[in-house]
Each structure stands twice: as structure tokens, then as C-alpha cells.
């Protein structure tokens, strides 16, 4: 596979969501990777922030709601160099990194931004007295929950010591129980992996609509799936048909003539792409909340990435379709609020896919690689790349390309 190998062509961004207490999306923190020598490791904070501002921000903003904010990390040199003024103040939040120490220069730089109307956030706070001068200027204080061992009593003591004005953002929230306790302490914003873990609701079961969609997804995964069945499914749902026509015409497949026939649309796309589009649409239709919408985006992105990257791995055989299904279904438990085991009872899949979704087997390593990229855990990503004997530059290029594909499939952009 031929892919660009120049780092000048690689802009690698992880976009981690930040939620309100009602689990709607407030915005995103952009996590950058730009190591010229070490794959998936940030070697230079200044370089990372520069690349986010110059190139990564434009990538991350695609498909983002207009009201969503973007948190961008600022090391000391970028802060004192007034680089923050290059950002749109109605969209971006200057996040002062925890290793920036308050001094005459850094405090003056922070005040200049604040006086100009920029929102300031202080990163990774867990009570450090040396950060107090920044705390007095901050609009948002990010409290590092894990640094306090996720101990709610210790977090409460930190909260009590803070001024009442700034908005409290709990970061590194790992589970739904901690999330609920932190809401009671007055936190308004939340960031962490809790959103991708299901909150099991007693008595929750699949609705008939959800069941129908899962059955269709299962049918689409069968090798013997008939093309005529695809047209039948689409023709029975006016919404799906409309969205397919919109997709195929918006990305240029319709060329000079608009596509108005389902058969014509499927013929032009080809069965594989048509099946992928329908799977993506069905997963997106399972969305019942803004949180689930974010999960659907991640799931489709994972699916495309796994499908593409298997061709680069040290696996003896490449099974792109099975890996696509693995990524696509990997967050269904969180989206539906059910145990994965219960979902798999009504969604019989290949054994390899089932094992990966249950956290084991040969597909699971690739699933973990995708999750490491999503969470900005670059050292973990590097370990997975080594075990899979993957070239980091190529894998990262595929990850970025997969994001663009996902945005087009979900109708978040009309650009090819």
C-alpha cells in the first residue's frame, strides 16, 4: 500500500469530548502527536501546539457543532509568545498546562489573553499551591480526579479550596459512579472514559426498533448477503433512501447526473461500499442522546480504521469486513446501556468478532490500538504498533483518512 511518508503531510489529532452534566457535548480537547523521531510520542510541546493551531484545528472542527468549544494545550513558550491570539476567541479555550509555573511573564501573558476576551483553563489541578496565581485568573479549572485517586472526599476538599467563580471541569473520570458523585460536588463539565462505558439501567431491554436495526446489521454481516436484499431494505425506509442519495450525490459519485435510482446508486457504489454505508447509517440511527451520537462517530471511525489497517499488520490473513464489524459494534454496549453479552445474544457474529467485543482474541489488539489513538495515549499506541509490526506513519495516515471517511459517511461534511 502506498501512503505518504513525509511527516509534513501528517497531522495527527485525537479529539476527546467534554460533556455537560446532562451528557450533551460541551466541546473537545485536542490532543496532538508530532514526534519526528519517536512514533506516537510528543517530543516537543511547543511543536505540538503549533501544529494543532496551524493544521489540526481545521481538521478537528469539521462536523463539530457551532456552539462546541475547543481546548488547546499551551506550554510556557507558546503562552508567553502570545500565540493564543492566533485562535478564534469565540471557539477556542487556552488551556495552561500544569507544568507552566506562574511568574511575571506567564501571568502577564495570561492577563493579556483574558483582557482580550479569551477563556482560560488551568490543566491537571489537584491542589498544587504553586498554581494558585493561575487559579485566580482561570475561567475553567480542570481537576485531575485520578491524581486524587478518584477519592470523592479528597476531590471535595480541593473543590472547597477553590474560588466560586470558575467553572469546574472534572477530568479523567473513569466510571459512571464517580461521574454522578462529582455532579453533586458542583462540577459542570466532565472529561474521561466514563462516556464509553455503559450505565446499566435495571430492566432495560431492546426496543423493537433497536432490535430490527440489530437484525439488519447481522444480516449485512453474512457472506451470502444478496444485493437484491440491500435494495429491498433501502426501499422500505424513505429516510435511508434519501440519505443514500444525498451521500452519493454530495461526494461526487453522481458526477454530472444526479442518481435517482436505488439500483443505480448501489451499482455505482459497489456492494461493499453500499453495505458499509448502510451499516454506518443503522448504527447512527441507534443514537438516542448526544452522548450516544459521539459514540456512534467513534464506532464508525474505529470500523474504517480497523478495516484499513489490517492490510498493514503482521496478520497472516486480512479480514477487513470482519474487522469493520468489530469496530462498528465495539461501543454498542455504551450506546444502548446494555451488557455486551446480552447484545451478542441477539446479534450472532463470527467467533473472532465476538471474542474481540468481549475483550480477547486476535482482533482485540487492533481494537486497543484504535482506542489508544482516540484517548491520546501515545505510548500505548506505540506498544501496540510494535506488537503488530506496523509502521507508525502509515497507521497514523490511515487513522486521519478514516476520520475524513467517517465524516462523509455520517453526512458531517460534503467534501471528498
Descriptive account of the structure:
There is one protein chain. The protein has 416 residues and is an alpha/beta fold. The protein folds into two domains: 7-196, Alpha-Beta Barrel (TIM Barrel), CATH 3.20.20.450; 208-409, Hypothetical protein af1432 (Orthogonal Bundle), CATH 1.10.3210. The protein is built from 19 helices and eight strands. It has an eight-stranded mixed barrel with strand order 1-2-3-4-5-6-7-8, surrounded by seven helices. Helix 10 (262-269) packs across helix 11 (271-284) and helix 12 (290-309) runs antiparallel to helix 13. The longest helix is centred in the C-terminal third of the chain and has 20 residues, at 290-309. The radius of gyration is 22 Å and the shape is globular. Residues 1-9 and 34-42 have low confidence and may be disordered.
So how many helices?
Answer: 19
Mean pLDDT score, rounded?
Answer: 81
Tell me the CATH architecture of the largest domain: Orthogonal Bundle
Number of domains: 2
What kind of sheet is the major sheet? 8 strands, mixed, barrel
Q: What's the end-to-end separation, in Å?
A: 20 Å
Report the principal-axis shape.
Answer: globular
Structural class: alpha/beta
Amino acid at each position: 500500500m502506498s501512503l505518504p511518508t513525509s511527516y509534513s503531510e501528517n497531522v495527527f489529532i485525537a479529539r476527546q469530548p467534554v460533556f455537560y452534566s446532562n451528557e450533551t457535548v460541551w466541546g473537545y480537547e485536542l490532543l496532538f502527536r508530532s514526534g519526528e523521531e519517536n512514533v506516537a510520542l510528543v517530543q516537543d510541546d511547543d511543536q505540538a501546539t503549533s501544529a494543532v493551531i496551524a493544521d489540526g484545528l481545521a481538521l478537528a472542527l469539521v462536523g463539530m457543532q457551532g456552539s462546541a468549544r475547543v481546548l488547546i494545550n499551551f506550554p510556557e513558550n507558546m503562552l508567553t509568545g502570545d500565540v493564543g491570539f492566533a485562535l478564534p476567541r469565540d471557539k477556542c479555550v487556552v488551556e495552561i498546562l500544569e507544568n507552566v509555573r506562574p511568574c511575571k511573564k506567564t501571568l502577564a501573558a495570561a492577563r493579556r489573553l483574558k483582557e482580550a476576551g479569551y477563556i482560560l483553563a488551568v490543566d491537571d489541578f489537584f491542589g498544587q499551591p504553586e498554581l494558585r496565581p493561575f487559579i485566580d485568573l482561570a475561567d475553567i479549572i480542570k481537576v485531575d480526579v485520578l491524581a486524587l485517586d478518584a477519592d470523592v472526599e479528597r476531590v471535595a476538599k480541593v473543590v472547597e479550596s477553590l474560588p466560586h467563580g470558575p467553572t469546574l471541569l472534572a477530568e479523567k473520570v473513569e466510571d459512571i459512579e464517580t461521574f454522578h458523585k462529582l455532579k453533586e460536588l458542583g462540577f459542570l463539565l466532565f472529561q474521561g472514559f466514563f462516556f464509553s462505558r455503559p450505565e446499566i439501567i435495571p430492566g432495560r431491554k431492546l426496543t423493537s426498533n433497536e432490535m430490527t436495526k440489530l437484525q439488519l446489521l447481522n444480516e449485512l454481516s453474512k457472506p451470502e448477503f444478496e444485493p437484491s436484499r440491500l435494495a429491498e431494505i433501502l426501499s422500505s425506509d424513505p429516510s435511508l433512501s434519501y440519505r443514500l442519495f444525498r451521500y452519493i450525490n454530495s461526494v461526487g459519485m453522481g458526477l454530472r447526473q444526479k442518481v435517482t435510482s436505488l439500483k443505480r446508486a448501489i451499482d455505482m457504489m459497489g456492494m461493499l461500499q453500499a453495505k458499509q454505508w448502510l451499516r454506518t447509517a443503522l448504527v447512527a440511527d441507534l443514537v438516542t442522546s448526544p452522548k450516544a451520537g459521539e459514540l456512534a462517530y467513534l464506532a464508525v471511525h474505529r470500523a474504517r480504521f480497523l478495516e484499513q489497517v489490517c492490510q498493514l499488520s503482521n496478520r497472516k490473513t486480512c479480514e477487513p469486513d470482519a474487522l469493520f464489524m468489530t469496530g462498528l459494534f465495539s461501543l454498542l454496549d455504551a450506546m444502548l446501556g446494555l451488557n455486551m453479552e446480552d447484545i451478542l445474544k441477539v446479534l450472532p457474529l463470527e467467533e473472532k468478532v465476538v471474542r474481540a467485543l468481549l475483550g480477547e482474541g486476535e482482533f482485540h489488539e487492533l481494537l486497543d490500538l484504535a482506542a489508544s489513538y482516540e484517548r491520546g495515549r501515545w505510548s500505548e499506541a506505540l506498544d501496540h504498533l510494535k506488537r503488530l509490526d506496523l509502521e507508525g506513519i502509515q497507521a497514523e495516515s490511515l487513522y486521519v483518512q478514516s476520520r475524513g471517511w467517517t465524516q462523509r459517511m455520517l453526512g458531517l461534511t460534503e467534501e471528498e
